[in-house]
Every structure is written in C-alpha cells, then in structure tokens.
Design goal:
Strand content: 15-25%
Helix content: 25-40%
Structural class: alpha/beta
Order of helices and strands: EEHEEHEEEHEHEHEHE
Radius of gyration: 19 Å
Number of helices: 6
Strand order of the largest sheet: 3-5-7-4-8-9-10
CATH class: Alpha Beta
CATH architecture: 3-Layer(aba) Sandwich
Shape: globular
Number of strands: 11
Largest sheet: 7 strands, mixed
C-alpha cells in the first residue's frame, strides 16, 4: 500500500524564519470543527472555568445569524441555541473542540445584542459583561464578529470594535464574517466584502452563507489555524516529565 501524505504536514509552509505554519486541508478543518460538544454555560463571567487552551469567541447582533453559523461550521443542527425571541438568550456558552475527548480549543457563543424588545437595563448589563469578557479573558485567541451585510456594521458593532482594538493591535485574531451572503447579488457582495475588509482593521473579512454553503471551508480553516499556531522548530522540546499545555480532558467519568 502506498503511504498517504499527512493532510497537515504535507502542506506546511514557512511564514517566517524558524516557524512552520501548517496549511490544513478543508477536510481536516471540517472534521475538527465537527468534534464540537457542549462544555459549560455561564450567566456571569466568574462562572467560566479558567482554561489554557485557545478560545475563540463568536459575537454579533441578534438576528445576525450567529447560531446558524456555529451550527453550520460544526455540522450540528442544535449545538448553538437560537431563541425564538431574539435577544433573550443571555448566557455565555462554551463548546469544546478536539478529538478523542481531549480539548485543544474552545468556541464561545456570546449573547446577541441590540434587540429592541430587551429591557434597557438588561442590554446595558450584558454589554458590560461581554466587554469585560473580551478585554479580560486571558486565553482568548480570536474573535469572530457576525454581521448581516444588508445592514452593515451597527453602532453597537462599532463600539465592540473599539473595545477590542487594543487587543487586536497586540495580536488578538479578528474575523468579520458577513452572513446571509446569498441575499446579495454578486456586485453587492463584492462591495460589502471590500468595505468589511477596511472596517476589520488588522483583521480579516469573509463572506458566508449557510444556505449556499459558501465560506464554510474558509472560515473553518481560519479557526483551525488560530487554534494551532505555527511551531518553532528551534524551541526546546517538552520532556516526558513536562505535561502539555494543560489540555482539557472532557471524557465523561
């Protein structure tokens, strides 16, 4: 039997001297995303466990298609819960990623914001909770902001961008995902993407459509890369006595 090349290692490239950046295949990235499983739900920040694995947060205005995006990326119909009353889901939900029960990354589903029917005091409270999370969560590796391109970035989206800007400038990954891209004509989609790339600052922007299956591979691969940063071959290797970076074993006892 002819040996098959490793789908990751076979496409490794060098992004800078001494660092090897693997270019993962869409199939591997999709398989990794499909391992997503519920980890914990928290009504407040202090209920979240302290983790050392990379954490990627999904955030966006209510009705921006956040739950649909997460469920599509993970190939699971009801992983992320979409309330029948937008804006009423007010918990932080964490989902573990990784094969064989070992968590190598976490997805965070933050509550949607900006829905008019929610009492003002609740809006203010949750805006502060999210801002605190985005600013203080130590293992936060990247942020995915979901936006309906037909509406563009709202005032609350702009405020969120200002909140995370210092961390993005310090290296926090950022991706602006334009959901419901199937609702736009080709010229409209291209224009929206060009604008989004400017608004993303030091981040990236991508078109996404769950209906047309557009952008799924690109976003999945991007998240995989965030969770699996380049390996520096010059760095000292861990010995057997040195445990890995505290992976989370969430295999049921």
């Amino acid at each position: 039997m002819t040996p098959q090349p490793d789908p990751i290692a076979a496409t490794a490239t060098t992004s800078k001297p001494g660092a090897m950046t693997p270019t993962v295949s869409a199939q591997v990235a999709a398989g990794w995303m499909h391992t997503a499983r519920f980890l914990i739900t928290a009504p407040e920040l202090h209920f979240l466990p302290a983790l050392q694995v990379p954490e990627i947060a999904f955030v966006g205005r209510s009705n921006a298609g956040k739950s649909t995006c997460i469920n599509t990326l993970t190939q699971q119909r009801q992983l992320a819960f979409a309330s029948r009353k937008p804006g009423r889901t007010q918990h932080i939900n964490l989902f573990a990623l990784g094969k064989q029960g070992i968590t190598d990354a976490v997805l965070t589903d933050l509550p949607g914001y900006g829905y008019a029917a929610v009492p003002r005091q609740d809006k203010i409270r949750w805006q502060q909770v999210m801002a605190n999370y985005l600013v203080t969560r130590e293992n936060l590796t990247g942020i995915v902001l979901l936006c309906d391109p037909r509406q563009g970035l709202t005032e609350l989206d702009e405020i969120l961008l200002e909140v995370i800007r210092p961390r993005v400038e310090q290296g926090l990954k950022f991706l602006l995902v334009l959901t419901k891209a199937d609702k736009l004509k080709k010229t409209e989609a291209n224009k929206a993407l060009s604008i989004a790339r400017l608004q993303a600052g030091g981040g990236q922007a991508m078109l996404f459509s769950a209906t047309k299956r557009r952008g799924i591979d690109d976003v999945s691969r991007q998240l995989w890369h965030w969770a699996h940063p380049p390996v520096d071959p010059t760095a000292p290797a861990a010995t057997e006595a040195t445990p890995p970076a505290n992976p989370v074993d969430d295999t049921p006892a």
